[in-house]
Amino acid sequence: MQTNPRPSLLYLVVGGLSYPVLRLLYRLTWRGVERLPAVGGYVLAANHWSSFDPWPIGMPLFPRRYLRFMAKSELFWFPLGPLISACGAFPVRRGQRDQEAIDTAVRLCREGHVVVMFPEGTRRQKGLRKKHEARWRSGAARIALEAGVPLVPAGIAGTDALARFAKLRVAFGPPVSLDGLSELPVDEAARIATDRLREAIAALEESLD
């Protein structure tokens, strides 16, 4: 019987300390967890408002799943680098096609991890939603297609108003259909899958309004 990778000790400690803060102070709620694969790796892709986004998207799965996050390579300096690595992060060089980061993500998915991606590529600024949607990256779709794992959408709301203690909400959707895409050229398959993913995330966001 396949089992999921166990979270690191530091991941469990940070999650355990964060859980009551998010649930009580920020009144975190979520729905759709039953749609997520219970066993095996997948790519979990969401909209991106804040650097705090990994917390609300990870808490609904805590402590059952070990979420792995791409983090910009500039963060991996001592002593921060070893700490965030132990919490599940791995580096990516932004602004370029980082094949090493992609290979790492594919390997983690195949090993049964949940790899979290923010396809918008950067945090949104208020009022610029349309601009950022037009610049979505196809990395999440490419990784899911190459690894042969589900591509799961999620919507996050409230992390753009943390200073006002806004209520945090997360909605998970069913995996995006990748049927037939393996027969297409890689770039075309990734583009189609990314378009489907963007539509699914947008629908989940709207459902949180």
UniProtKB/TrEMBL annotation:
SMART domains: PlsC (SM00563). GO terms for biological process: phosphatidic acid biosynthetic process. Residues 42-159 form the Phospholipid/glycerol acyltransferase domain. GO terms for molecular function: 1-acylglycerol-3-phosphate O-acyltransferase activity. The chain crosses the membrane at residues 9-26. It comes from the Bacteria. Keywords: Acyltransferase, Membrane, Transferase, Transmembrane, Transmembrane helix. This is 1-acyl-sn-glycerol-3-phosphate acyltransferase.
